[in-house]
Design a protein that fits this description.
InterPro entries: NUDIX_hydrolase-like_dom_sf, NUDIX_hydrolase_dom, NUDT19. Keywords: Hydrolase, Magnesium, Manganese, Metal-binding. Its cofactor is Mn(2+); Mg(2+). With 488 residues, this protein is an alpha+beta fold. It is built from 13 helices and 21 strands. The strands form seven sheets. Strands 11-8-15-14-17 form a five-stranded mixed beta sheet, with helices on both faces. A four-stranded antiparallel beta sheet has the order 18-19-20-21. Strand 2 and strand 3 form a beta hairpin.
């Protein structure tokens, strides 16, 4: 739609309408292309309206709608039955303009750029969460293309007793509601630095932004600071400093690295061991490219006589105060095998990445109250050696789960883990062909998860064919055909 079509029209934003994170007063803006009103990083503010045209009453009544969720601006005519006259797609990354309250925008306001200094820190989290232009490209057939996976990080945090931390997400969460997850979250340019763009080679590779995001999110969500002092010791914080820091960082009032430096700490990025990357398959509206890490908290200096391992009481964590509510209700360290049993029995919701990594870790970490420090360290050494090996290396394994066959007789689905996703197979990235995850996808989330090798699944299907005739023969034939093609 060219500006000439509505040369005399004015765009009227309603009182209290959101524009970015700020409430915009009712103003009249001559309708022009979005790029003209919001010119990348040099917002000029609203041009002065023509009084003669505004008195004409053409669009004097509030009629235009700004919808950042749908990234859509529409012009409606109040005089013709609220009929839409025109619409345009906005550029979400350019939608954080600040307009003057006055009808005429002074040169001083224009020189300030798109964000005033006083508001810059308050809006950075919104910008990080907003979708990009490429997230909403329309294909030739008119269908919306798959969303671009957002860069994120997560940490398998090992306690001094070789237990693993999981956080219980709230039911109202927009991502993985009610599930038990590792601490982690999206990369923030404000806190962590710029993550590689989707078309850059480092987008799906371990890097500084991913590592810093993993440490920051762990601190925000659990209160545990993976940082060391100048002497190399783990940074110790008072309860007041810890909770104040979590709120400041979560709200974006101070950069994470700056706050940590003021407390005498440095992020322990070298202590993170990359341990697979997971990319959300095409389909869900929210997709992530998540770098997973292992991190070992220091062991104690004495024989451990902590809380019995059978305890299921969750330790409540201080409630953060993000926009919109609470992210997690509780945090708990448990042996990895205990988490696996809870997920397999359907008592908790757990997604394939967490279940797979816990299954790998459980092969080596078998905590017990009677273990000595040397025995705990021996378990850790074996896990470190495993995580740094593999073919392909576990640090380079990239997994985008996909259904291998149709549903089994018990209603569960077999998920293959060999596809790296995002066309990365052409770039030499691989998943793991040895394992599959069997799960039931219920409305609340994955249930009754089980990790098996492909050989075990093949044998199970063969046994089913023998016992029930041809009930599973089509599944078996599908897997055999797929394996033959892969060998060729």
């Amino acid at each position: 739609m060219s500006p000439g079509h509505f040369k005399n029209a004015y765009l009227s934003y309603n009182q209290q309408a959101y524009f970015g994170k700020l409430i915009v007063p009712q103003i009249l803006i001559p309708f022009r292309p979005i790029a003209r009103i919001c010119r990348s990083t040099n917002c000029l503010g609203p041009p002065a309206p023509n009084p003669a045209r505004s008195r004409s009453g053409l669009f004097r009544l509030p009629s235009s709608v700004l919808d950042l969720v749908r990234n859509h601006v529409a012009i409606n005519s109040s005089k013709s039955g609220n009929r839409q006259l025109a619409s345009a797609i906005t550029f979400p990354r350019l939608s954080t303009c600040i307009f003057s309250n006055a009808r005429f925008c002074s040169q001083e306001v224009r020189d300030r750029g798109p964000l005033w200094d006083a508001k810059q820190k308050q809006t950075h989290r919104l910008r990080d969460k907003m979708s990009r232009v490429e997230d909403h490209q329309i294909t030739e057939k008119g269908k919306k293309s798959p969303s671009v996976p957002k860069p994120s990080s997560s940490v398998v945090l090992i306690s001094p007793t070789n237990q693993v931390l999981l956080l219980h997400r709230v039911q109202t969460s927009t991502s993985f509601p009610s599930a038990h997850v590792f601490p982690g979250g999206n990369v923030s340019e404000f806190h962590d630095g710029r993550a590689p763009e989707p078309n850059e080679p480092g987008r799906h590779v371990d890097g500084p932004a991913y590592r810093l995001a993993a440490i920051r999110e762990t601190f925000e969500e659990s209160g545990i600071a993976l940082a060391h002092t100048s002497s190399g010791r783990l940074l110790e914080l008072s309860e007041q400093d810890r909770e104040t820091g979590r709120k400041l960082i979560h709200s974006g009032k101070v950069p994470f690295r700056q706050w940590l430096s003021e407390k005498g700490g440095t992020p322990d990025v070298d202590g993170l061991i990359p341990f697979t990357r997971w990319i959300t398959p095409i389909g869900p509206p929210k997709r992530f490219t998540t770098q997973m890490y292992l991190y070992f908290l220091p062991t104690a200096s004495r024989v451990l006589d902590r809380t019995p391992l059978s305890s299921t009481e969750e330790t409540l964590i201080p409630t953060p105060t993000p926009d919109g509510g609470v992210e997690h209700t509780a945090a708990q360290f448990l042996p990895p095998q205990k988490w696996i049993e809870l997920a397999s029995s359907g008592k908790i919701i757990m997604f394939p990445p967490q279940f797979f990594l816990l299954s790998m870790v459980a092969q080596f970490l078998k905590p017990s109250p009677s273990l000595s420090i040397s025995e705990l360290e021996q378990q850790r050494a074996q896990l470190r050696e495993f995580a740094r090996g593999g073919d392909p290396l576990w640090s380079e394994v990239c997994i985008s789960p996909a259904a291998l066959i149709g549903k089994l007789g018990d209603g569960r689905t077999v998920m293959a883990l060999d596809n790296p996703g995002e066309g990365l197979e052409k770039k030499g990235r691989r998943g793991t062909k040895e394992y599959v995850i069997i799960t039931e996808f219920s409305k609340g989330g994955p249930r009754r998860l089980q990790l098996k090798t492909r050989k075990e699944v093949m044998q199970d299907l063969k046994d089913d064919v023998k016992n029930s005739g041809t009930a599973y023969s089509h599944h078996l034939q599908h897997i055999q055909t797929k394996n033959t093609r892969e060998k060729l």
